[in-house]
């Protein structure tokens, strides 16, 4: 007796749908009032399918339309496609006595279509060979094969027709940014919201004429750096925003917003356009606390006659309201580095000094250079010995005879010049 009871319980378990597919089941007769009738089967297993209500097809595929993705409006569409917004459940070879297949396999033209409730954008169904749908999916029927197939209840075959929601709603991105920025960079703050049910935002891309930046997920900040060492001036610079979610939906907005790029600190503000991001002080854009401007005076002659000492001038401008201490270092990759020194520092620090300059003041620093050997040379001025940190660079030419044009030859050192360089070197060391 106990053995018979155990067998009976096991049979009931086999006939029952799996736990993650409890909202759909195969019933003999009609579905209940709160259920959707998707279609009908001739038997509970190894069965042909037909449109619901077909004579002698007494088994109904019933799904709870209050708890699943289905509505009460399900039917067989014979025009080879469901209407826009409807979900394709399954395809039948004919409206009765039919084999079935997963949609768009061989092209069975009779589609079982359902109108989704307003909560969902859409849904789709697929062929699952694991025997169980995911907990967020709805198991409809089991299938012998993915095409030309007989059908049965959820325990008849190992392959399950699983249906799940389909997100077709693009995300929404809100981007905030400063309306006026200096010609160095701009930063954007992004908040992305996705209501389509796909699991959230994927990324938001902001594109400008100066490049683009990306914020991942629901939000964050990204920065676009403008070209280095440039003084850009551009009004009404537009940018685009493209947000995507994890389902692949995209929300692209051309010309989402615009911003003004003004001249950054240390840019020339006396030559139009002259609008600084901060303020224009003695022809230099600057805000309080910025570094002074340091550069060679290229208006002077950079041609040095062999054996003579010439002066090269460095301009320093302090456009800030505070006194500044400015470290200076002159260097070169050429031999000329041994033939130059700051004025009044020939016998001490020679190539590195610190200059103090008052607020809003301008100062000239003098560098002496000996014409040691004919040729072209490069001299840099910077805060330290790191060539990459230089403020400015200048090219000089040492000629055998001073003139205003290019020299035609570059002879080596003569005897007199050689003696002069040896003596000068002894003093410089």
Tell me the layout of helices and strands.
Layout: H1 2-15, E1 24-28, E2 35-41, E3 49-50, E4 59-64, E5 74-77, E6 87-92, E7 100-101, E8 110-114, E9 122-128, E10 138-143, E11 151-152, E12 159-166, E13 172-176, E14 180-182, E15 185-193, E16 201-208, E17 211-216, E18 219-225, E19 234-245, E20 250-262, E21 279-281, E22 284-286, E23 293-296, E24 303-305, E25 309-317, E26 324-331, E27 340-342, E28 352-357, E29 362-370, E30 375-382, E31 392-399, H2 415-428
Parallel strand pairs: 14-20, 24-31
Antiparallel strand pairs: 1-4, 2-3, 2-4, 5-8, 6-7, 6-8, 9-12, 10-11, 10-12, 13-15, 15-18, 16-17, 16-19, 19-20, 21-22, 23-25, 25-29, 26-28, 26-30, 27-29, 30-31
Structure, explained:
Mean pLDDT is 82; it is low at 1-22, 404-422 and 424-429. Helices cover 7% and strands 44% of the residues. The protein is mainly beta. The chain is built from 2 helices and 31 strands. The chain is rod-shaped and about 115 Å long. It has 3 domains: 16-166, no CATH class; 172-262, Immunoglobulin-like (Sandwich), CATH 2.60.40.10; 294-428, Sandwich (Immunoglobulin-like), CATH 2.60.40. The protein has helices spanning 2-15, 415-428; strands spanning 24-28, 35-41, 49-50, 59-64, 74-77, 87-92, 100-101, 110-114, 122-128, 138-143, 151-152, 159-166, 172-176, 180-182, 185-193, 201-208, 211-216, 219-225, 234-245, 250-262, 279-281, 284-286, 293-296, 303-305, 309-317, 324-331, 340-342, 352-357, 362-370, 375-382, 392-399. Strand 21 (279-281) and strand 22 (284-286) form a beta hairpin.
């Amino acid at each position: 007796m106990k053995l018979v009871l155990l067998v009976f319980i096991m049979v009931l378990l086999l006939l029952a749908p799996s736990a993650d597919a409890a909202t759909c089941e195969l019933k003999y007769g009609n579905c209940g009032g709160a259920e959707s009738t998707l279609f009908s089967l001739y038997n509970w297993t190894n069965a042909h399918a037909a449109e619901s209500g077909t004579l002698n097809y007494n088994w109904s595929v019933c799904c709870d339309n209050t708890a699943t993705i289905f509505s009460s409006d399900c039917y067989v569409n014979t025009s080879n496609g469901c209407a826009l917004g409807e979900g394709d459940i399954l395809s039948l070879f004919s409206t009765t006595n039919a084999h079935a297949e997963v949609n768009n396999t061989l092209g069975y033209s009779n589609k079982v279509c359902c109108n989704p409730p307003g909560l969902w954008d859409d849904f789709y169904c697929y062929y699952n060979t694991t025997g169980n749908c995911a907990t967020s999916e709805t198991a409809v029927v089991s299938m012998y094969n993915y095409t030309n197939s007989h059908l049965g209840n959820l325990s008849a075959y190992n392959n399950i027709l699983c249906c799940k929601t389909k997100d077709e709603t693009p995300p929404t991105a809100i981007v905030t940014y400063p309306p006026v920025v200096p010609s160095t960079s701009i930063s954007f703050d992004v908040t992305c919201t996705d209501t389509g049910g796909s699991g959230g935002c994927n990324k938001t891309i902001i594109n400008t004429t100066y490049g683009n930046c990306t914020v991942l997920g629901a939000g964050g900040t990204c920065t676009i750096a403008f070209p280095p060492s440039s003084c850009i001036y551009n009004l009404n610079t537009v940018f685009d925003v493209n947000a995507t979610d994890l389902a692949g939906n995209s929300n692209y907005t051309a010309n989402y917003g615009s911003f003004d790029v003004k001249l950054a600190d240390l840019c020339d503000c006396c030559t139009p356009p002259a609008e600084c991001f901060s303020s224009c002080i003695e022809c230099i854009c600057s805000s309080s606390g910025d570094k002074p401007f340091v550069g060679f005076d290229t208006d002077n002659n950079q041609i040095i006659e062999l054996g003579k000492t010439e002066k090269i001038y460095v301009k320093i401008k302090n456009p800030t309201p505070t006194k500044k201490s400015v470290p200076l270092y002159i260097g070169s990759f050429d031999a000329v580095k041994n033939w130059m020194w700051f004025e009044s520092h020939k016998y001490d620090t020679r190539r590195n000094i610190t200059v103090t300059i008052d607020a809003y003041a301008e100062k000239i620093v003098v560098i002496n250079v000996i014409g040691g050997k004919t040729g072209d040379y490069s001299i840099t001025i910077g805060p330290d010995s790191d060539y990459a940190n230089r403020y400015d660079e200048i090219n000089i030419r040492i000629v055998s005879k001073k003139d205003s044009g290019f020299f035609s030859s570059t002879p080596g050192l003569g005897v007199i010049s050689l003696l002069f360089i040896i003596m000068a070197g002894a003093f410089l060391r």
